[in-house]
């Protein structure tokens, strides 16, 4: 039940930014309601590991209702906002029923959607890697391609096509997925699919001149050397113009047959953010001030990938959203008590990426690490940042299980 004596705080989303607010908000001061089509927090940095079974799907999620049982949660999607009435309109995810919610403070942390750049065929034929359902779909497609390629009467050209796995987009997600795929092929498929493992091809397509553009140049060069040794083909300056049912068409006319294509080429504003009558930047993200307030009102806030701090273009990363959420939970408490909080300031802790074969990158302010030591650091950092003790134990057990028994190749 709603508490009429407390100001109503509504939080849209359950990503890094929203979840950071949810964990830290003072429920003695605010009556908190969370609205999101996803009823759990997803630790996306380890999502590529779930596509091949290095880590199991449920090991990196945390239900919202378990973390803060005193917070009200609605499994729904916000589809409209009325500033004057301080009211949002929502649609239930399971039944589609429409309802409205009143708020005194509204936090918009709905993240971003996958950018397709209006390339024909992307939504029809490619798979994305943003949600747990995406990872499950990729995992099923990989096993399906392997099983079909193993059929005794398969056409050689069709077999070659099915065993070609392509990633479009050379950012950390695409690179880490290919790294996990390489380990899967080397460590597991040679035992379980000996007849086809040697014919698997992995290709990375990047429209710009470089992969991992936000990383140090020396680390980018190291990644390309590692991929070359792993026989992962990297094709830069290769923008995709069309994706068909069984082939990718590049701008230069090259046609690339594929069994699986994963689209990881950037992000775009969600339909909700595009529909809001608020100030936005060139990428349609909500413009906020240094206190994460939307300019038109002091009680409307935005953070994470759906927002942009005016004059301070922070990267669209999990650590930015997480720090913003932690800050906003404290700032909201200050605002409610009439106290002026300090402006938000982001502190970069560096970037990490896995590149396969027990090697990783660590692009830190003072250290540019790579190789096995960076891989140990990568695992330890992500392990410590998992939300609960339960998840930490599950991920450790998954890593041990994969090392001892290999990855599961069942299709169900």
Beta fraction: 15-25%
Radius of gyration: 22 Å
So what's the oligomer here? single chain
Q: What global shape is seen?
A: globular
Mean pLDDT: 94
Task: State the total count of DSSP E strands.
Answer: 23
Task: Estimate percent helicity.
Answer: 25-40%
Biggest β-sheet, characterized?
7 strands, mixed
Treating each run of at least 4 consecutive H or I residues as one helix, how many helices?
12
**Unreliably modeled segments:** none
Structural class: alpha/beta
Tell me the span between the first and last alpha carbons. 41 Å
* Spatial order of the strands forming the largest sheet: 7-6-5-2-1-8-19
Overview of this structure, please?
The structure is a single chain. It is built from twelve helices and 23 strands. By secondary structure, it is of the alpha/beta class. The strands form seven sheets. Strands 7-6-5-2-1-8-19 form a seven-stranded mixed beta sheet. A four-stranded parallel beta sheet has the order 12-11-10-16.
Present the secondary structure layout.
Elements: E1 8-12, H1 16-24, E2 31-36, E3 40-42, H2 47-50, E4 61-63, H3 64-67, E5 72-82, E6 87-92, E7 98-102, E8 105-108, E9 113-114, H4 122-125, H5 132-149, H6 156-162, E10 164-168, H7 172-192, E11 201-205, H8 217-229, E12 232-235, E13 240-243, E14 247-250, E15 255-257, E16 260-263, E17 267-268, H9 271-275, E18 286-288, E19 300-302, E20 307-309, H10 318-336, E21 351-356, E22 359-363, E23 368-371, H11 372-385, H12 389-405
Parallel strand pairs: 1-2, 1-8, 2-5, 8-19, 10-11, 10-16, 11-12, 18-20
Antiparallel strand pairs: 3-4, 5-6, 6-7, 9-17, 13-14, 14-15, 21-22, 22-23
Helix pairs in contact: 1-10, 5-6
């Amino acid at each position: 039940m709603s508490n009429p004596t407390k100001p109503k705080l509504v939080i849209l989303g359950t990503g890094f930014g929203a979840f950071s607010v949810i964990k830290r908000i003072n429920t003695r001061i605010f009556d908190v309601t969370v609205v999101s089509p996803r009823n759990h927090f997803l630790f996306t940095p380890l999502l590529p590991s779930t596509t091949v079974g290095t880590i199991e799907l449920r090991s990196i999620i945390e239900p919202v209702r378990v973390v803060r049982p005193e917070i009200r949660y609605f499994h729904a999607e916000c589809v409209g906002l009325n500033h004057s009435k301080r009211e949002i309109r929502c649609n239930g995810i399971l039944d589609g029923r429409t309802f409205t919610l009143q708020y005194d403070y509204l936090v918009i942390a709905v993240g971003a959607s996958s950018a397709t750049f209006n390339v024909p065929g992307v939504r029809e034929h490619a798979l994305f890697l943003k949600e747990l359902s995406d990872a499950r779909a990729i995992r099923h497609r990989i096993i399906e391609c392997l099983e079909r390629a193993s059929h005794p009467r398969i056409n050689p050209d069709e077999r070659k096509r099915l065993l070609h796995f392509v990633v479009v987009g050379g950012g950390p997600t695409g690179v880490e997925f290919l790294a996990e795929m390489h380990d899967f092929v080397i460590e597991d498929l040679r035992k379980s699919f000996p007849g086809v493992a040697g014919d698997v091809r992995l290709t990375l397509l990047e429209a710009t001149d470089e992969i991992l553009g936000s990383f140090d140049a020396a680390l980018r060069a190291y990644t390309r050397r590692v991929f070359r040794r792993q026989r992962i083909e990297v094709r830069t300056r290769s923008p995709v113009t069309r994706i068909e049912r069984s082939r990718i068409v590049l701008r230069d006319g090259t046609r690339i047959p594929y069994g699986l294509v994963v689209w990881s080429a950037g992000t775009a504003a969600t339909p909700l953010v595009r529909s809001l009558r608020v100030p936005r930047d060139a990428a349609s993200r909500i413009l906020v001030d240094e206190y994460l307030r939307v300019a038109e009102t002091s009680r409307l806030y935005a953070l994470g990938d759906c927002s942009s701090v005016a004059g301070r273009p922070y990267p669209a990363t999990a650590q930015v959203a997480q720090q913003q959420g932690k800050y906003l939970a404290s700032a909201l408490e200050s605002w409610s008590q009439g106290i002026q909080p300090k402006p938000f300031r982001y502190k970069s802790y560096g970037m990490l990426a896995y590149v396969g074969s027990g090697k990783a990158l660590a692009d830190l302010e003072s250290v540019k690490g790579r190789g096995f030591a960076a891989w140990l650091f990568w695992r330890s950092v992500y392990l410590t940042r998992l939300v609960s003790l339960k998840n930490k134990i599950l991920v450790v057990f998954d890593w041990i299980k994969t090392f001892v028994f290999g990855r599961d190749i069942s299709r169900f």
